[in-house]
């Protein structure tokens, strides 16, 4: 563990109004932990910013003392590449201001998806939430952001209208397409390596009616369910999102589910999914008219930190061979294998680092590495499944795992542009994203 010299620790405490922890403080190990408890995070201090002014003060101090800052509002996406850095928590930057006339939301960098959804739903609006209500909106947008409503509206980052940032020189300013277009481009999916975001302005969307939920069957019906899923996905309008879930929980029989959301009325949704009526009766069917505030309940992902090992891939097809590969064997020791139907607006032109998401499906594999032996078996299973599927070789930034880097997600031209911006804007590497665009250079790429 890196220990800051006492004078710098005192400077930290005198320059920011928020709380500061160093390794000798009680509670330091808890506050430095990332969301994924399988990732060890070595940092020299933790600063919990009280406001944006604290971020400015911290960056100026770090710049003058040749220190680096890693920003994690909630700890999601951590890679462990933070050795010696000061860990910045921005969870207290949690203001939400919604203008129902312009349908623009102005939020702090620490706002979680579920909180924004509740505020937006009060006006019959929605942001572009993913599966988890506890991921921060800013963190997701910096990685592009895949949403339940991405087929209707594209990347979450495509809905961003402005960022409030602090750059490596300690100056705060507002970034828009006309004011600093290069940085605006980079922040909409290129990771958090170029500036510390303190606020975001984003376009909300109308959501007067939402229908969604989960249909669940025993895995003995897996092939039937998967084929019905695929048939519905091929014909689905953009307003309908369908995810296939293979589930294997310890001590329980394997399961298969179809998770869905529809931006529209119940009758139309049920008609679009009527083919599931031909399947054996499900163990449960939670589909119902729901508030956009409750989308996080569909997959019921954990809302507390825990260990995990993941791998994601983008699929070029979901043909019979792909279904064979997914269903040939039990998924254990994996806990879940999720297939997301993409397409729609996600495949349309996007002036963002990732660009259009042309692959029609994504697969996300997750397991809990309770021991080193189980962790290795999880990785081997993920590799075996991925190698048997028609994958494109790239993946969304928000789905990267700690062993990967931005070159696994973004086109080569975007990587080169991001590297140039990093060397111009932050030559001393004061700001440290979970995935730095320079990591692969240092590793010898």
Summarize the structure.
The chain is α+β, with helices and mostly antiparallel strands. The protein is built from 13 helices and 20 strands. The longest helix is centred in the C-terminal third of the chain and has 16 residues, at 372-387.
The main β sheet shows up as: 8 strands, antiparallel
Give the number of DSSP strands: 20
The overall pLDDT, averaged over residues, is 96
Structural class: alpha+beta
Q: What characteristic shape results from the CA principal axes? A: globular
Instruction: State the helicity in percent bands.
Output: 25-40%
Give the DSSP E fraction (strand runs of 2 or more residues).
Answer: 15-25%
Distance between the termini: 28 Å
Unreliable spans: none
Secondary-structure blueprint:
Blueprint: H1 6-15, E1 19-21, H2 28-32, E2 43-48, H3 52-64, E3 69-71, E4 85-89, E5 96-99, E6 104-108, H4 113-121, E7 125-126, H5 137-142, H6 150-153, E8 160-166, E9 172-175, H7 181-187, E10 196-203, E11 205-206, E12 210-218, H8 222-235, E13 240-247, E14 255-262, H9 266-272, E15 284-285, E16 288-290, E17 309-315, H10 320-327, E18 336-341, E19 361-367, H11 372-387, H12 412-425, E20 431-432, H13 439-442
Parallel strand pairs: 2-4, 3-4, 3-20
Antiparallel strand pairs: 1-2, 5-6, 6-10, 7-11, 8-9, 8-10, 12-14, 12-15, 12-16, 13-14, 13-18, 17-19, 18-19
Structural notes for this entry:
- With 445 residues, the protein is α+β, with helices and mostly antiparallel strands.
- The protein has helices spanning 6-15, 28-32, 52-64, 113-121, 137-142, 150-153, 181-187, 222-235, 266-272, 320-327, 372-387, 412-425, 439-442; strands spanning 19-21, 43-48, 69-71, 85-89, 96-99, 104-108, 125-126, 160-166, 172-175, 196-203, 205-206, 210-218, 240-247, 255-262, 284-285, 288-290, 309-315, 336-341, 361-367, 431-432.
- The strands form 4 sheets. Strands 12, 13, 14, 15, 16, 17, 18 and 19 form an 8-stranded antiparallel beta sheet that branches.
- A hairpin with a 5-residue loop joins strand 8 (160-166) and strand 9.
- It is globular, with a radius of gyration of 22 Å.
- The two termini are 28 Å apart.
- The mean pLDDT is 96.
- This is FAD-binding oxidoreductase.
- Residues 39-207 form the FAD-binding PCMH-type domain.
- Its cofactor is FAD.
- Belongs to the oxygen-dependent FAD-linked oxidoreductase family.
């Amino acid at each position: 563990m890196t220990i800051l010299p006492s004078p710098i620790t005192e400077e930290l405490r005198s320059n920011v109004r928020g709380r500061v922890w160093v390794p000798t403080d009680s509670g330091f190990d808890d506050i430095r932990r990332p969301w994924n408890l399988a990732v060890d995070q070595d940092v020299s201090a933790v600063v919990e910013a009280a406001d944006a002014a604290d971020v400015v003060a911290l960056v100026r101090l770090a710049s003058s003392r040749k220190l680096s800052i890693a920003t994690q509002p909630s700890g999601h996406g951590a890679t462990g590449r933070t050795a010696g850095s000061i860990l910045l928590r921005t969870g207290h930057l949690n203001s939400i201001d919604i203008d129902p006339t312009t349908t623009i939301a102005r939020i702090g960098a620490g706002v979680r998806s579920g909180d924004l959804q509740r505020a937006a739903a009060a006006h019959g609006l929605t942001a572009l939430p993913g599966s988890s209500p506890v991921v921060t909106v800013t963190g997701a947008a910096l990685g592009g952001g895949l949403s339940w409503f991405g087929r209707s509206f594209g990347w979450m980052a495509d809905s961003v209208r402005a960022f409030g940032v602090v750059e490596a020189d300690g100056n705060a300013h507002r970034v828009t397409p006309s004011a600093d277009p290069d940085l605006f481009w980079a922040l909409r999916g290129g990771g958090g390596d170029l500036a510390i975001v303190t606020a975001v302005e984003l376009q909300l969307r109308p959501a007067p009616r939402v229908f969604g939920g989960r249909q669940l069957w025993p895995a003995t019906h897996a092939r039937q369910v998967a084929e019905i899923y695929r048939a519905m996905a091929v014909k689905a309008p953009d307003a309908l999102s369908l995810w296939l879930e293979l589930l294997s929980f310890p001590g329980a029989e394997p399961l298969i589910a179809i998770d869905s959301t529809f931006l529209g009325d119940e009758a139309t949704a049920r008609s679009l999914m009527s083919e599931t009526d031909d399947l054996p009766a499900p163990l449960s069917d939670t589909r119902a008219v729901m508030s956009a505030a409750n989308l996080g309940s569909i997959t019921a992902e954990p809302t507390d930190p825990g260990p995990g090992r993941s791998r994601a891939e983008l699929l070029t097809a979901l043909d019979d061979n792909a279904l064979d590969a997914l269903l040939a064997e039990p998924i254990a020791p994996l806990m879940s294998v999720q297939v997301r139907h993409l397409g729609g607006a996600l495949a349309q032109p996007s002036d963002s680092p990732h660009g259009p998401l042309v692959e029609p499906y994504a697969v996300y594999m997750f397991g809990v590495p309770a021991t080193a032996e189980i962790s290795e078996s999880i990785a081997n299973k993920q590799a075996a499944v991925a190698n048997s599927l028609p994958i494109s070789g790239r993946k969304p930034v928000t789905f990267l795992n700690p062993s990967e880097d931005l070159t696994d997600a973004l086109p080569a031209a975007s990587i080169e542009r991001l590297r140039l911006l990093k060397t111009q804007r932050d030559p001393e590497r004061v700001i440290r994203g979970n995935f730095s665009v320079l990591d692969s250079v240092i590793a010898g790429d």
